[in-house]
Amino acid sequence: MNATHVAVIITLLFFTSIAQAGQVNLAWYPSTQSTLGGYKLSYGTASGNYSSSVDVGKQTTYTVVNLRDGAKYYFAVKAYDTTRTVESSFSNEVSTTIGVTSTPIAAPTASFSASPTSGTAPLMVTLIDTSTGSISSRAWTFSDGTTDTAKTVIKTFNTPGSYTATLKVTGPGGSDTTTQSISVTTSSLPVANFSASPTSGTAPLTVKFTDTSTGTVTAWSWDFGDGTPPSTQRNPSHSYATTGTYTVKLTTTNSAGSNAKTQKDYIKVSSNTGTGSSAGKFQQGSVAPNLVVMEAEHFTGNTAQGGYAWQATTSYGNYSGASALRALPEDNTRIDTNYAATSPRLDYQVNFVKTGTHYVWIRALGPSWSSDSLHVGLDGQEVASAARLSQLNPQGSWAWSKTTQGGTIATLNVTNPGIHIINVWMRESGTLLDKLVLTPNANYTPSDLGPDETISTTIGAATLPSPWIDMDIGNVGQAGSASYASGAFTVKGSGDDIWDNADAFHFVFQSMTGDGSIVARVASIDYTNSWAKAGVMIRESLDADARHAMAVVTAGNGVAFQRRTTPGGTSYHTAGAAVGAPYWVKLTRSGSTFTAYQSADGNTWAPVSSATISMATSVYVGLALTSHNNSALNASVLDNVSKRTN
Predict the structure, then answer these.
(1) Are residue 209 and residue 65 in the same domain, yes or no?
(2) Do 307 and 396 reside in the same domain of the chain?
């Protein structure tokens, strides 16, 4: 097909077998031109004067729909070339009169589902239109006077009573209506109650509280009796940092009101009874393999139960440290059930910086086949995956084992960082314990006397409200610390900087999963260097070279948004306002986007900058301080601290 050879369409064929009213099927003979680009079908109610046109491509059939019943229509086609610049003349014209259907259109049938149809106020009911037939509109009417037109409606009935939900659907063939009764009753007060485990132990004592309330409960408020902020979790864990006897109160709430349960003098926290170099907590290592190493004799609690006790001994030689411990008397006794309440227990307080599965190693000795196993637990709880640790050498020599009597590897699951208590119970009397090692590294194996005992001098969690903990990160010249009083954190830290490929600073932190934010006002910062900095940080790990983002106030260089996007990689800087403390900073995470904000009053916020950092889902969030002078401690104060998760 070209400008001088315009194809002429051969006679248009048509037929008027109508599938439904207002529809015509058409067909025409194809053009044989090699340059054919396609066809245009034109039609209208006046001969030769077509009001509608449609490009149908190269197909040679087409169905025209939505034609008016009783009207006469005229049809013709043109061909066009591949450039769409050359068109043929119209084909022959054909016409037909659209018949009027004699089959009436049926009215739709109204129906819907409602769930639930009864309950206590406020009752949220989901209503879904399941009507059938041709529907052009729907109308919901509720007997409380409200209406809606959506296909799916979520309706809340706030007041007790009997209600009717009505759905009317309308279509070309008419309308139909259906109803459903909904009953809303008055809520009754919940009956508050709870239990806790353990209810006694040495400080710091981590207690797991379990809600056992009856009735409908929509909100919980726990007063732990130690002056810390209340918890709104249903089943919280709480760490008691100091000795004392504590009264615990749980308040439960629903739409009918509140009910409280108070257990007076419920939690009893005694003083530390440990001996040796570990007078308090063991600090988990912040770098791989993140070991916790405990000499058996450096327990923080030793509780005799059931007529048995762990006692120091030096009779078997080749032990690590000052002595080993043995469960005595040895009388062939075995305790496999309810051992947390009936077997002698050792407690070791540990500040964990890693969460998840931890592998348990013991260096122990079994003088005989009937005295070669023990149980290990967490926070006073029996843990099946670390029960019946055995595979010891019953020939009078020490052995390392991480295997249970069932042949599985002994593990403990640490769900959140911070202070936890590792427990050891006697399983068979006469068993000796020399050392414990915990690590999240499945490939780590101790040998001989094992690694050196973990230090316990860098932790200040006892002075911080749960779940905050603190520690030095990287190579610092002086040990840092943190304390909390009257709504303010006082943080002390040295360190060269948080910059380049690795960091050295003091970190006050807790864990965060997913998206969230951290806000603080830097109330004051010591001038140990113009680049001394304090502020808020989100950090992927506690390694010195970890990915992180932070919004800080410096001692002499204003606000800054700084970050490291790859482990051990380059650090980046974006300057903010040229101001000093007191000043507010905020850091948010949304997926892999981290955004720093600054504010003079904590109400009006201005963004500093954003960066894309591919961090893990589980991260650490908190307050960071570096002296930028590794020989000097910088003491800074941060208040109005709040952490939020999305």
Answers:
(1) no
(2) yes
Alpha carbons 532 and 426: distance in angstroms, whole number: 51
Cα 251 to Cα 261: distance, rounded to the nearest angstrom? 6
The rounded radius of gyration (Å) of the Cα atoms in the chain is 38
State whether 291 and 372 are in the same domain.
yes
Cα 362 to the chain's mean position, in Å? 33
In angstroms, rounded to a whole number, what is the distance separating the alpha carbons of residues 592 and 646?
14
How many folded domains does the chain comprise?
Answer: 5
User: Given this model, what pLDDT does residue 204 score?
Assistant: 61
Residues 535 and 640: beta-carbon distance below 8 Å: no
CA proximity to 531, closest of 488, 575, 472? 575
- Residue 276, pLDDT score: 36
Residue with tokens 């245009």: 40
Tokens of 304: 């005799």
The Cα–Cα gap between 52 and 61 comes to 17
- Planar angle of CA 114, 116, 120, nearest 5 degrees: 140
What is d(CA 533, CA 224) in angstroms, rounded to the nearest whole number? 35
Domain boundary among 244, 270, 296: 270
Domain assignment of residue 317, given as a range: 282-439
Query: How many angstroms separate the first and last alpha carbons of the chain?
Result: 65
Helix (H) or strand (E) holding 328: strand 324-328
Q: Name the residue type at position 459.
A: I
Tokens found for residue 344: 């002698």
- Amino acid letter, 225: G
Label residue 453 left, alpha or beta by phi (over 0 means left) and psi (-120 to 50 means alpha): beta
Whether residues 392 and 295 fall in one domain: yes
* CA torsion angle 300 304 309 310 (round to 10): -10
8 Å CB contact between 354 and 286? no
One domain, residues 538 and 626: yes
CA dist., res. 124 & res. 107, Å (int): 31
Inside any domain, residue 276: no
Q: Are residue 234 and residue 353 in the same domain, yes or no?
A: no
Rounded (5°) CA angle 336-339-342 = 125
Which residues face 175 on adjacent strands?
170
Q: Is the Cβ–Cβ distance between 552 and 538 less than 8 Å? A: no
Within a 13 Å sphere around the CA of 402, how many CA atoms are in the beta-carbon half?
Answer: 20
Q: Which tokens go with 565? A: 């996007």
Cα 554 from Cα 575, distance rounded (Å): 11
Query: In this structure, is residue 585 part of a structural domain?
Result: yes
- Token reading at 27: 């067909």
Residues 309, 419, single domain; the answer is: yes
Do both 293 and 251 map to the same domain?
A: no
pLDDT, block means (10 residues), the chain with 646 residues? 41 49 82 88 92 92 86 90 88 84 77 92 91 93 94 90 94 92 85 88 76 91 89 88 83 88 85 41 84 88 84 85 86 92 89 92 88 91 92 74 91 88 93 94 93 61 69 87 90 95 92 91 95 96 90 96 95 95 96 96 95 91 96 94 87
Rounded to 5 degrees, what are φ and ψ at 385?
Answer: -75, -10
According to the model, what pLDDT value does residue 21 have? 60
Establish if 375 belongs to a structural domain.
yes
